[in-house]
Automatic annotation (TrEMBL):
UniProt keyword Transmembrane helix present: yes
Matches recorded under Pfam families: DAGK_prokar (PF01219)
Signal peptide bounds: none
Protein name in UniProt: Diacylglycerol kinase
Annotated organism of origin: Hirondellea gigas
Keywords: ATP-binding, Cell membrane, Kinase, Lipid biosynthesis, Lipid metabolism, Membrane, Nucleotide-binding, Phospholipid biosynthesis, Phospholipid metabolism, Transferase, Transmembrane, Transmembrane helix
Transmembrane regions listed in the UniProt entry: 34-53, 97-117
């Protein structure tokens, strides 16, 4: 009997697994929810202040980048957590570096948002 692999049998199955991952992150990770709320607020502000299409593209890009970084951080933290239940300096390093990446991307998004919206107010 052939060994079962975790390979996805179809493209639609791959999409379903990806969507499951996003839903799990939204349900279980407070920071993912916070970043989604902030992203939604930024989109609403875009509608209120009438940003240009290029500004909108830039803001959507940085919102997506922040969410990507947060999802990767969540995945890294989960991977570290299943690899050890005890404190290890390398586990702390991996988690801290991943969180630092989210911080850098979030600060970048904040600066871009400030540059765009400060001209509108």
């Amino acid at each position: 009997m052939p060994k079962k692999t975790n390979k996805n049998s179809s493209f639609s199955e791959s999409i379903n697994y990806a969507l499951e991952g996003i839903v799990v992150a939204i349900k279980t990770e407070r920071n993912v929810r916070i970043h989604i709320y902030i992203g939604m607020l930024v989109i609403i502000l875009c509608l209120i202040f009438g940003v240009t299409s290029s500004e909108l593209k830039e803001l959507i890009s940085v919102i997506s980048l922040v969410l990507f970084a947060e999802l990767m951080n969540t995945a890294i933290e989960a991977t570290v957590d299943i690899s050890t239940s005890r404190y290890h300096p390398l586990a702390k390093k991996a988690k801290d570096v991943a969180a630092g990446a989210v911080l850098i991307v979030s600060l970048n998004a904040g600066v871009i948002g400030y540059i765009i919206f400060s001209k509108k107010i």
